[in-house]
Every structure is written in C-alpha cells, then in structure tokens.
Amino acid sequence: MQPGGAVQYIAQGRGELSIDANHPLRRLFAGLVERRLFQDAQLSDTQAVTYIAELLAEFTHVRKLYRIRNARGQRLQDVGEMLIESNPLLEGRSFDYERAVRKHIGDYTLFLSGLFPEYVASLPRRGLRLDALVDYVKAGKESYRIVAAFDQFEYRFEAPLFRRLSDSFELCVYGLNLVKTDLERFQQGYYRGLRSALGSE
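The structure assignment produced for this chain is given below.
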C-alpha cells in the first residue's frame, strides 16, 4: 500500500469525523472489497459491498470503532458489554438506541472477524472478559437481523440491506479475510521497497 499522506478527516454532524470522500484510502478499500467480496466471494449485492467498503474507511478512525459508551461515559470494547448496553430491559435507553448499538455490534464484529481473525480466535483464552463467551459471528448476524426488524418509518429503506448482511455474514467475513491478505501483501511490498531504497537489501 502506498502511503497517501496523513489521513484527512472532515467533520460530520455532532462532531463525528469521517475520511474525506476523495481520499485514496476510500478508493483503495472500495477496489479491494469489490474485488474480493463481489468477484471472489461471489456476494452479488452491490449495496452490501459498498456498505462494507465504507465501513472499513470509517473504522480507520478509532473514535468510530469505539463509539459506544456506557452510562458513565466509558468506551466499550467488549461485544458482551455492548450487548448489555443495547438491551432496553437492561442498560438500553430506548428502542432507537438498541438499534444504533446493534448496528454497531454488527459492524464491529464483521470488521474484527474479517480483518483480525487471530484476535477474535484468541478471545476465549483472554481470561474473565465477557467476550471470552461471545461468538462474534453469531452476535454479528443476530445484531444485523435485529436492525433489519426496524423496518418502519425512517428505517424502512435500510432494513432490507441489514437483512441481507445478516444472511450473508459468513460470506462477508470470508471476503474480508481475503482483503486482509491483500493489505498484508501491500504492506510487505512497501517495506521491501523502502529497504531497497535505503540500501538495506
């Protein structure tokens, strides 16, 4: 992967940050995801492929990746804690909030299962964390299915996308595993070129 300079961010509503629409990183992710999910994994869903490419770009910013906070304002990194936070009978503040947290859980588990499968596989060995007991694929599928159940009013147009993402979750993870391989190969090629330019090889 060639360095594109510092990642540029633009402000979105409520002070959230996003990578500029024309940034090379967005184009890189769009190309890789289209190739690996649409062609190689045969996920014939253009809307889902676009959504996943946008997700990768958004999650390059750590504040997006860890956007869910509990009532004390602490950043939640465990899916188990997010599941508790989403439940309207436990910590959840409303059904709209449940939908927002469940959408994030689907995104978060897809991102980590696809690009960091070794980390996800190591969770059962990580002691007393809640995530030692959480199946990321099951939690992601279920969360997208719950988001899809919000199919009225302003959510009715997005619901079918999340139903399809739930149904094809494993296929999306597989495609992102292939994207991870591409990114690692780009990184190795970049460092080999750098060493060569510095006369280390």
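Interim note for the steering committee: The CA atoms of residues 102 and 143 lie 5 Å apart. The chain has one domain: 9-177.
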